[in-house]
Design brief:
The complex is a heterodimer of chains A (about 250) and B (about 300). Chain A is of the alpha/beta class. Chain A is built from five helices and 16 strands. The chains are: A alpha/beta (about 250), B alpha/beta (about 300).
C-alpha cells in the first residue's frame, strides 16, 4: 500500500497554544507506511476539499500518527473541536517526505511557526546530531521545544518580539552554526533566507512547501509550484513531487 | 440483480460511472485505491497537440458546496499520451475516453486523426474549458461555434465522438442540438460554471487566473436542469455530470435524461465515491425492481 483512506480513532488531544492543537490517532497501516515530512489529507464533514495536515510524529509500533496544526479556517476549526474517541477520515501517507541520508551528519532543522511540526519526526532520526532552530511570534506561541529536546537535539528559539530567545529572525541563528545539511519548513520569506544560506554554505537543503490543494495525490494538478530541472522550468505539484523539495529545484514566483 | 451495463454510441460500459476529465489524471493515482476496472470508464485529462505548462498558482479555491479550479489544461501533449499513458490505461479493463482541447479547429482535427489510429474507445471534444485564453470554450458558447467545430472534427474522427458542453451559455438545448446536427454521437455535460472568489484582505482574486471553473455539489441542480433541457431536445445519448457526489445524485441525473454519469470533484472529497455510488445505485435498482440503469434514463415525471 502506498496510501489509502482509513477511519482513524483519536486517542489523545491537547491544546498547545491559543490556536495550535495536538492530535494523535490510531492509523494502522497508514502509520506503518508513513515517512517523516509526509502529510495526511483529512476529511471535514460538509466540505468539498480535505485539509492537508503534515505528519508530526509516527509511531510504527503503536501504529499511531500525530498531527500538530493551527486553526486557519473553518476546516481546521472543526478539527480543533474533535475529541478523543471521535473518528477522523484520513487519506495518508501522501507526498515525498525528507530524505534523511546519513543521520550521523550534523543537521540543522529550521522551522517557522506552524512549519515546525513536520520537522520533529525527521529530527528524531538525527538525535544529538540535530540542531533545531525554531521561530515564533512570541513566547506564548512556542511549540514542541521539549519534544525535540527529548530526542537529544539542541533547540534554539527566535521570537519576533524578543519575548523568548533570540530577538529577530530564526534564520539569523544559522550564522554561528556549523552543519552539513539543512531541513526546513515555514513561511516563504523564511524558506528563501534558508535557501540563500544553503547556497552560501554549499550544503544540501530540503524544504517543505504548501499550496492550495484538491486531490492530494497528483491527479488534479491543482497544487502547482514552479520547479526547475536540467535548466528547464515547469510546474510540478506540491502533493506528489513534494511537499519536500531539494531547494535547488524550486523557483520562487513573483 | 440489476443490470448496470450501458451502451453509448456503440461503446459498451460495464457500468454508468465514468471518471470525469481533469479530476483523474491518466488513472495512475486512483489506481492505487482499487482496480480501475471497477469504473465504467475513464475520461482522461484533457490533452492538447503540444505539452502545456498550465496556469500559475494558486489554481484552486474552495467555495460553498464546491470549488473553483483554473489548472489551465496542464498536460504532456497528445503524442506523450499515446505513447506513455494509453498502453497502461488499455490494460486496466475499462473504457478509455480521450479528451481533446486545442487552440484552433485544425488542432482538434489533427488530434482526432491521430487518436483514431489508436485503441482509445471514444473521443470527447473539450470545447468548454473556461481556463485557457485561446480555444477551449470559445468554440463552445455559440450554436454556430459548436456546429462548426463538431462538423470539422467529425470528418477526421473515426471513433465515437462525444462533445462536452459548457454551461456558460444562454440556451443549452440549442447548443446540444447544434452538436447533434453536426454529427456528434453523444454529448457530455456540464463542464464547470465560471466563477470567482476574492481575498478580502489583499483584494486579489483567490485564483491567479482571476476566474476559475466551479464544480462540486453546488453545481448539481444546474447540471440536472441542463441535462433535462438537452434530453428533451436531442436524440443522441447524454453523459451527465456536474456535482454528483452520492448515489441519490446519480439517480437524479439518470432520471433527468443521462445514460451515464461522470464523477469529478467527488473524488477529492472521497476517492472511493464512485464505488459507493455504484453500490447505492445497484441497491436502488434492486429495491425498486428496475431492470437496469438504462431503464431510468429520462424517467423523470414532469409537473404539467
Amino acid at each position: 500500500m502506498k496510501y489509502d483512506v482509513m477511519l482513524c480513532k483519536i486517542i489523545s488531544k491537547r491544546q498547545l497554544t491559543a490556536d495550535v492543537f495536538d492530535l494523535t490517532v490510531e492509523a494502522g497501516e497508514l502509520a506503518k507506511a508513513a515517512h517523516p515530512g509526509q502529510f495526511a489529507h483529512i476529511y471535514v464533514p460538509g466540505k468539498t476539499l480535505r485539509r492537508p495536515i503534515s505528519i508530526c510524529e509516527i509511531d510504527r509500533s503503536a501504529q499511531t500518527l500525530r498531527f500538530v496544526f493551527q486553526i486557519r479556517g473553518e476546516g481546521t476549526a472543526w478539527l480543533a473541536d474533535t475529541r478523543p474517541g471521535d473518528t477522523l477520515d484520513i487519506l495518508a501517507p501522501l507526498g515525498n517526505g525528507y530524505s534523511l541520508g546519513n543521520t550521523r551528519q550534523k543537521a540543522v532543522f529550521v522551522g517557522g511557526g506552524i512549519g515546525v511540526p513536520p520537522l520533529l519526526e525527521a529530527a528524531k532520526a538525527f538525535g544529538e546530531n540535530a540542531t533545531v532552530l525554531t521561530g515564533f511570534r512570541n513566547s506564548e506561541s512556542i511549540i514542541l521545544k521539549e519534544d525535540f529536546e527529548k530526542n537529544g537535539s539542541r533547540v534554539l528559539i527566535a521570537t519576533d518580539d524578543g519575548s523568548y530567545g533570540h530577538h529577530g529572525l530564526v534564520t539569523d541563528l544559522l550564522d554561528d552554526l556549523d552543519f552539513d545539511v539543512i531541513f526546513a519548513c515555514g513561511p516563504v520569506p523564511m524558506l528563501k533566507a534558508v535557501c540563500k544560506a544553503a547556497a552560501a554554505r554549499r550544503v544540501p537543503c530540503q524544504i517543505s512547501l504548501e499550496e492550495r490543494m484538491a486531490c492530494g495525490i497528483g491527479a488534479c494538478l491543482g497544487c502547482a509550484c514552479r520547479l526547475k530541472k536540467d535548466g528547464r522550468e515547469f510546474y510540478g505539484h506540491v502533493c506528489k513531487d513534494g511537499p519536500v523539495f531539494d531547494y535547488e529545484t524550486v523557483v520562487w514566483e513573483g | 440483480m440489476a443490470d448496470l451495463h450501458v451502451n453509448i454510441a456503440g461503446v459498451e460500459f460495464q457500468n454508468p460511472v465514468i471518471a470525469a476529465s481533469g479530476t483523474f489524471g491518466f488513472g495512475h493515482e486512483y489506481g492505487e485505491f482499487y482496480p480501475l476496472s471497477r469504473l465504467g470508464g475513464i475520461s482522461c485529462k484533457g490533452i492538447t497537440p503540444a505539452p502545456r505548462p498550465g496556469n500559475p498558482p494558486p489554481r484552486i479555491a474552495e467555495t460553498p458546496g464546491g470549488m473553483l479550479n483554473a489548472v489551465g489544461l496542464q498536460n504532456p501533449g497528445v503524442d506523450y499520451f499515446i505513447e506513455h499513458d494509453l498502453p497502461w490505461l488499455r490494460q486496466q479493463g475499462t473504457v478509455i475516453i480521450a479528451n481533446i482541447a486545442g487552440n484552433t479547429p485544425e488542432d482538434y482535427c489533427r488530434m482526432a486523426e491521430k487518436l483514431s489510429d489508436t485503441d482509445v474507445d471514444m473521443i470527447e471534444l473539450n470545447i468548454s474549458c473556461p481556463n485557457v485564453k485561446q480555444g477551449g470554450v470559445q468554440f463552445g458558447t455559440s450554436s454556430s461555434g459548436v456546429e462548426d467545430i463538431t462538423a470539422a472534427v467529425r470528418k477526421h474522427c473515426r471513433k465515437p465522438l462525444m462533445v462536452k458542453l459548457s454551461p456558460n451559455v444562454s440556451d443549452i438545448a440549442e447548443i446540444a442540438a447544434a452538436a447533434e446536427s453536426a454529427g456528434a454521437d453523444a454529448i457530455s455535460m456540464i463542464n464547470t460554471l465560471t466563477g470567482m472568489r476574492i481575498d478580502i484582505h489583499t483584494r486579489r482574486p483567490v485564483i491567479r487566473n482571476n476566474t476559475g471553473g466551479l464544480s462540486g455539489p453546488a453545481l448539481l441542480p444546474v447540471a440536472i436542469r441542463m441535462v433535462n433541457q438537452a434530453y428533451k431536445r436531442v436524440k443522441i445519448p447524454i453523459v451527465g455530470m456536474g456535482g454528483i457526489s452520492k448515489w441519490q445524485d446519480a439517480v437524479e441525473m439518470l432520471l433527468a435524461g443521462a445514460c451515464a454519469l461522470q464523477i469529478g470533484t467527488a473524488f477529492f472529497t472521497d476517492p472511493y465515491a464512485p464505488l459507493k455510488i455504484l453500490d447505492g445505485l445497484s441497491e436502488y435498482l434492486n429495491e425498486n425492481h428496475i431492470a437496469g440503469a438504462a431503464a431510468l434514463t429520462g424517467k423523470m415525471i414532469s409537473w404539467e
